[in-house]
Specification:
Layout lengths: L4 H14 L2 E5 L5 H9 L4 E4 L2 H10 L5 E4 L8 H4 L5 E5 L2 H13 L4 E7 L12 H13 L7 E8 L7 H24 L5 E8 L5 H6 L4 E4 L1 H4 L4
The protein binds pyridoxal-5'-phosphate.
Pyridoxal-5'-phosphate binds next to strand 8 and helix 9.
Length: 228
């Protein structure tokens, strides 16, 4: 399946008008296909697997911003710490601590999103509100322990469902958590969080996600074709 350049240009035009950032999800896709989108101007790419991200990064232009959007195991953080731009799938305090540790080792500040469990499907990773509270308290109470990370906001995946009501209810829930924690950051003057990014929406539901307040969408199959 060739890269859908027409769709890419349409999306870029659509998102430019609405201040939405497009992450091209390139998992399983070849270096050549990624380069095609790069040549059209795309710089933000999302990968789900550590080894794949590391291998592609070494073969592609250095100004690509690599987003890690998969489930990240603590013992693999060190492999991406020197090169990753935004880790979108932080789903535990333990992982955040490890990211901070590895970021410090490479003398970087790594930007992260906390992944929230919004879909009522138990196959998906993510934090609940109680765990989010816990992480925000840790950022507040021990800022020096988190000097090498910045939490930029939340990421979530709604259910794969034709039921638009269900999907939009889940998205609204994520948006309201985002607003809640944005206020927490502001009120406590937390220096290691911005809460400026709400990453939700994929090929099948990005339009609804933007309507519900997303400002970062992660799109794979619409651009690269269905993953077989
Ligand atoms: C694969 C993936 C996407 C992209 O999915 P498409 O339906 O192909 O657009 C987005 N987000 C995450 C976390 C993914 O794993």
């Amino acid at each position: 399946m060739p890269v859908n350049e027409i769709k890419y240009k349409e999306l870029v035009a659509e998102f430019a008008a609405s201040n939405v950032q497009l992450i091209a999800v390139s998992k399983i896709q070849s270096v050549n296909d990624i380069k095609r989108l790069y040549d059209l101007g795309q710089r933000d790419f999302g990968e789900n697997y550590v080894q794949e991200l590391v291998a592609k990064q070494s073969q592609l232009p250095a100004d690509i911003r690599w987003h890690f959007i998969g489930h990240l195991q603590s013992n693999k953080v060190k492999l991406i710490a020197p090169i990753v731009h935004l880790i979108q799938g932080v789903d535990s305090l333990k992982l955040l601590v490890e990211i901070n540790k590895q970021a410090k080792k490479t003398d970087r500040v790594i930007h992260c999103l906390l992944q929230v469990h919004i879909a009522h499907e138990d196959t998906k990773f993510g934090l609940d509100e109680e765990e989010l509270d816990l992480i925000l308290s840790a950022l507040k109470d021990q800022p020096s322990e988190f000097a090498n990370i910045i939490v930029d906001g939340l990421m979530g995946m709604a259910s794969f469902s034709d039921d638009q009501n269900k999907v939009s209810t889940e998205m609204k829930a994520l948006k309201s958590l985002f607003e809640k924690y944005k206020v927490v950051c502001l009120d406590n003057d937390l220096r290691n969080c911005t809460f400026s990014i709400l990453s939700m929406g994929m090929s099948g539901d990005y339009e609804l996600a933007i309507k519900e307040g997303s400002n970062m969408v992660r799109i794979g199959s619409l651009l690269f074709g269905a993953r077989l």
